[in-house]
Design a protein that fits this description.
The complex is a heterotrimer of chains A (about 650), B (about 270) and C (about 180). Chain B is of the alpha/beta class. Chain B folds into 2 domains: about 150 residues, 3-Layer(aba) Sandwich (Rossmann fold), CATH 3.40.50; about 100 residues, no CATH class. A 5-stranded parallel sheet of chain B has the order 2-1-3-4-5. Classes of the chains: A alpha+beta (about 650), B alpha/beta (about 270), C alpha+beta (about 180).
């Protein structure tokens, strides 16, 4: 239907966009595009450029959508809103036929003839083109064609817009459907300062292209357009691991996690209604009082409604969990079997418009994680099995019994350590020590060590220039990639602040990606606090730091008590939150309780566990906790993975 | 329902404790009223005609909750004389707004309103008709939707099951193209829990649904309550349910938490 | 974050107890009460009754609100600021064992015999307390069984939280943290 025609990308000035609209309106065509209504950017009739949402941008999160004015004159600095183009190609209600019955018992059936309005879609995003192509396959790619859909599709002109920003719920990049437009369009625009880089993608597009005041695009303009799309791509921090998802999901039909989602799911059908590819419908009847003439219409329906799977004598999907499983497995698994692709295009609407913010990316990560994610830590560059030498660059005392060593390893692979990983430290003559990495900076690994026995006492007494052996980096670290867009709570107790410091470094490096950041730090006495010189710098960088000690003298005017006191009295309850906790196990458990009361779910509370380690790579058997080896399956775990294991003796 | 082919079905419309709004909906079917009366015989409909009948009825539309001992007796007699008994409106299907007194101490309540409380005979509770007799069909709403009433009458004539879909208001909102007030406007809205039928009226005017059509099948009250409580408060979330369908079983628990009114009037029996 | 202690401030600790400065009207009191952790779980009419015995009091930094071993002067809910609870340990001096943060209660001993404070409560920064007069409060509770039945369980909850936290502090968990395998 649409073929790519070679055309030089050109430049259209912003002022000339009005010409494009006028061209599209020729012959009585109605232009449909984005416009502001009722607190959202929806698709509706566009008569002139002034109808477009100039200067508007959107802010999306699970269950939350807001728009705001930036004051710029940019026309497309937002992503997708509640309407999808499905509204125009596959409308909510379409007449099918009229059935008549005469008093003599004869029947007559008069099918509706498709009479689609002539429309031009202005502002179709890459994910939306993918959605249209998916529905093309479903509704007109098989042996039985939906004539109304086909007529509407053929009557519509597609003017695509490449995204130059992504929302927090966008994940087209991971689905392979965007943000760049690679086909399915008549024209494609990419907004840059002062106008648009324009290209055509079909004979109709080429015609429009030739009638617009388009100039040759300069290299700078082209680079700006390419850069904008690249920027949109990098802004997406979360997605779906598509590889093998069909099999992974179908393997989990009996997972207990479906019931957990069902606890939250309202089966309200909003996700299916906003989804650009969902196509389930039912037939409604409207009869005259005598039943002589009945209009049958086709109406949007959803597999989440109660009667969807009802038959005489029963209902195949009476439970919410069965309906949710049906939707998710259809979208990400059986759709492949039926239509050769995923049903999802990564537009994120189902996440934003779910009234309780259920996020399919998260659900898929929990229900059908990529193989091996739970089983083994991904092998990172470095040296897990063989000691490499590292030279002590400096030893800085933090408290009376704790110091931080900066070590320069001969293998720079160790510097790729992720927050939360650890190394095995070997001093000749002493047993190996598992030590969490407390920072990677300036070409060195920083280890904060407490003198708790002869080996640790010896390590912190080393002089600069001495060498040690290091193996690592080891273990599964803090899942920082789950945090963007969320409110983050970090709770540390005593020396537990050390394994958490690289996490804080990572959060503050990219501060704008996260919601609120809180560090609740508990120590024994004021003198036992670590990194006191850094706290103000952290505060200045946007981390709220609250400290508390077990007891203090009169000179301490800060809080005294247990670390959960810092969380107890706070106003916030955050269903969007994510938490990272490190400290004595008992303290971690009390903190988990408090955070659960505050609304953070178990699957988003992470702990760093500790056990006796000899090898650090799952071969000596010491560090087992239930089915896990703390050294390679951990030390970081989600509470949902280990909650039934946190008992005496496990 | 077996009706003599030759005669029009006999229809009665009666009221118990209610505001009459649902009966008015029948009269609001202005254009259809004459065709309806040509096909149905309205034998009892005090709101519209002075014609009276004690029954029997082929179809009896009952508006209002059971609020007095007399009504509790009357509904049993009516049931015996009705072929099909259809309750119409939030009062008859869920107890209505008057059911808020079910959480209070009724004698105290009565004493705080009336100067001579002993003159009033009322039950401790206002309850839906279905808690007293078997009900054949329900039309939800406050008031009911004219389209649904028409569909019910048409279905009776044609002989098919009336199309009164039991699904969330959200589907109607999305079909209409309404922007979700909960997600975009942070307005507390009970639409996801509420039986559809009103055409998503309130959200079309950017107002949250307050569940006047009552709960749909399997409403996940706890989940939506938790969500609304996080942005607003537990108290506000509870209060949302203490409305026209508070007594519907899925809504009773949160509604009850918002209604500690047992003693509110205890201090002032003489109406200070 | 710890701040320097000035000499004048320090001597104030040994000085006379402070009764704070009264402020606010009935509506403010009710709002403060309903918004606190302690008060939000009580029924509205219980709050209305209790607030008749209360006033909002402002204490400057260093003000001594309760004195260890003296009769408890105040049962209150901290609304802003921070109150340090201190005990005197021979040879060690004054040790802060807990700080009471906004929303939490102070002086629960006012409601439990022998009505004597178990620690000295000092405002560590300008602090506002929704303060209940102990004898008026005790009188109201003994006259109204229903009111007592709503308050005491909540008080027990508050004290239980305090006890659980104290146990954690007692365990001295941070002292046992070891990063290494001791030999």
């Amino acid at each position: 239907m649409v073929t790519t025609v070679a055309a030089r990308p050109g430049f259209l000035r912003r002022d000339d966009l009005e010409r494009l609209i006028a061209l599209l309106q020729e012959g009585g065509r109605t232009v449909v595009g984005p416009t502001v209504r009722d607190g959202a950017i929806v698709y509706d009739e566009i008569r002139e450029v002034a109808d477009l949402p100039a200067g508007w941008t959107d802010d999306q999160a699970p269950g939350r959508y807001r728009i705001s004015q930036t004051g710029s004159d940019r026309l497309f600095d937002y992503t997708v809103g509640p309407t999808s183009w499905k509204r125009f190609t596959f409308p909510p209600r379409v007449p099918l036929l009229t059935a008549g019955r005469s008093t003599a018992g004869n029947a007559a059936f008069d099918s509706a003839r498709p009479d689609p309005p002539r429309l031009a879609f202005l502002g179709v995003r890459a994910c939306e083109i993918a959605g249209l192509l998916v529905q093309d396959r479903v509704l007109s790619g098989g042996p039985f064609v939906d004539e109304d859909y086909r007529a509407r599709r053929e009557a519509a002109v597609v003017v695509a817009v490449q995204c130059t920003c992504s929302g927090k719920t966008c994940f087209c990049a991971s689905m392979g459907t965007g943000p760049g437009v690679s086909g399915g369009h008549d024209l494609v625009l990419t907004e840059i300062d002062g106008g648009f880089v324009v290209d055509s993608g079909s004979p109709l597009g080429a015609q429009l292209f030739s009638r617009l005041p388009i100039t040759a695009a300069t290299p700078e303009q082209l680079a700006s357009a390419v850069g904008g799309v690249a920027e949109a791509r990098t802004q997406q921090t979360s997605g779906v691991a598509l590889d093998g998802i069909r099999d992974r999901l179908m393997d989990q039909l009996d997972s207990p996690r479906w019931a957990e989602v069902a606890d939250r799911c309202l089966s309200c059908a909003n996700c299916t209604m906003v989804c650009p590819t969902c196509f389930c419908t039912s037939v409604t009847l409207a009869s005259d009082l005598d039943g002589r003439s009945t209009d049958l219409d086709r109406q949007w329906d959803s597999c989440f409604t109660g009667n969807f799977a009802k038959v005489a004598g029963g209902n195949f999907r009476s439970r919410r969990q069965d309906r949710y499983r049906q939707w998710l497995t259809h979208k990400f698994a059986t759709w492949f079997d039926q239509f050769g692709s995923a049903g999802c295009v990564g537009c994120g609407r189902c996440i934003t418009w779910c009234p309780v913010g259920i996020d399919v990316r998260e659900e898929l990560a929990v229900i059908a994680p990529p193989y091996g994610e739970n089983a083994q830590a991904a092998v990172v560059a470095g040296s897990p099995g063989v000691y490499v030498t590292a030279t002590v660059r400096s030893v800085t005392p933090e408290t009376a019994d704790t110091s931080t060593l900066q070590l320069e390893p001969t293998d720079s692979g160790l510097l790729a350590a992720r927050p939360g990983q650890f190394v095995m430290v070997e001093q000749p003559g002493f047993p190996p020590l598992p030590i969490s990495i407390s920072r990677v900076a300036d070409g060195a690994l920083w280890l904060t060590i407490r003198a708790a026995g002869p080996a640790t006492t010896a390590v912190i007494a080393l002089r600069p220039g001495t060498q040690l052996g290091l193996r690592g980096p080891l273990g599964r670290g803090w899942p920082v990639e789950r945090a963007p867009g969320r409110d983050v709570v970090v709770v540390a107790g005593g020396i537990g602040l050390a394994p958490v410091r690289p996490l804080i470094d990572a959060l503050l490096r990219d501060r704008s990606r996260f919601g609120s950041l809180l560090l609740a730090y508990g120590a024994r006495t004021p003198a036992d606090r670590l990194y006191t010189g850094e706290l103000d710098r952290w505060r200045a960088a946007g981390l709220e730091v609250q400290e508390i000690v077990d007891r203090a003298g009169e000179e301490w005017l800060g809080s005294v008590g247990v670390v959960t006191n810092l969380l107890d009295q706070r106003e916030w309850r955050s269903r969007e939150g994510i938490a990272f906790i490190c400290g004595p196990e008992r303290m971690m458990r009390a903190t988990v309780s408090t955070l659960r009361e505050r609304g953070i779910p178990r699957r988003r509370i992470f702990l760093s566990m500790e056990r006796h380690m000899e090898c650090g790579i799952g071969l000596c058997g010491h560090c087992q906790m239930g089915p896990y080896f703390i050294c390679k399956d951990g030390p970081v775990f989600a509470v949902s993975e280990i909650s039934d294991l946190m008992r005496e003796g496990i | 329902m077996t009706i003599d082919a030759g005669r029009r079905p006999r229809v009665g419309v009666v009221k118990l404790a209610s505001c009459d709004g649902c009966q008015l909906t029948l009269l609001d079917l202005e254009d259809q009223l004459l065709p309806i009366t040509e096909r149905f015989e309205l034998v009892e409909f005090p709101e519209a005609t002075s014609r009276r009948s004690e029954g029997p009825y082929d179809v009896l539309l009952v508006e209002g909750a059971i609020s007095t001992p007399e009504q509790a007796e009357e509904i049993v007699h009516l049931r015996a004389r009705a072929g099909l008994l259809v309750t119409i409106g939030a009062c008859a299907t869920a107890g209505g707004i008057q059911a808020l007194r079910n959480w209070a101490d009724e004698p105290t309540w009565r004493a705080s309103v009336y100067p001579n409380p002993d003159d009033i005979s009322s039950l401790a509770t206002a309850t839906p008709v279905s808690e007293h007799v078997h009900v054949d069909a329900e039309l939800r709403g406050c008031p009911i939707a004219p389209d649904q009433l028409l569909e019910l009458l048409t279905a009776l004539r044609v002989g098919r099951r009336p199309q009164l879909p039991d699904e969330a208001v959200c589907l109607e909102c999305k079909r209409a193209g309404n922007v979700c007030v909960l997600v975009a406007g942070n307005a507390p809205c009970l639409g996801p829990l509420t039986h559809t039928g009103c055409g998503a009226l309130c959200p079309a005017y950017l107002r949250g649904c307050y569940a006047c059509f009552g709960p749909r099948e399997q409403p996940n009250v706890d989940s939506l309550h938790r969500w609304i409580a996080t942005d607003h408060s537990d108290e506000e979330a509870d209060r949302l349910f203490a409305g026209f369908t508070a007594w519907a079983p899925p809504f009773q628990a949160p509604a009850g938490r918002a209604l500690p009114i047992a003693d509110a009037h205890a201090k002032e029996p003489d109406g200070a | 974050m710890a701040r320097a202690v000035t000499p004048e401030w320090h001597s104030a600790l040994r000085s006379a107890p402070s009764y704070g400065r009264a402020m606010g009207d009935q509506a403010d009191l009710l709002a403060a009460f309903a918004g606190s952790w302690f008060g939000e779980a009580l029924p509205a009419q219980a709050r209305m009754r209790l607030v008749e015995c209360a006033s909002l009091r402002e204490y400057p930094t260093g003000a001594v609100i309760l004195t260890e071993l003296d009769e408890t002067r105040v049962f209150g809910i901290v609304t802003t600021g921070r109150v340090g609870l201190r005990v005197l340990v021979p040879e060690r001096g004054s040790v802060t064992i807990l700080t009471v943060e906004p929303g939490d209660v102070l002086g629960w001993s006012a409601l439990v015999g022998p009505h004597r404070s178990t620690s000295t409560a000092v405002a560590l920064e300008p602090t506002t307390v929704l303060a209940f007069d102990p004898s008026a409060l005790r009188a109201a509770l003994s006259a109204d069984d229903a009111l007592a039945a709503t308050l005491y369980p909540r008080l027990l909850e508050a004290v239980t939280r305090r006890l659980t936290a104290t146990r954690h502090q007692l365990l001295d968990l941070y002292a046992q943290q070891a990063e290494a395998v001791p030999w």
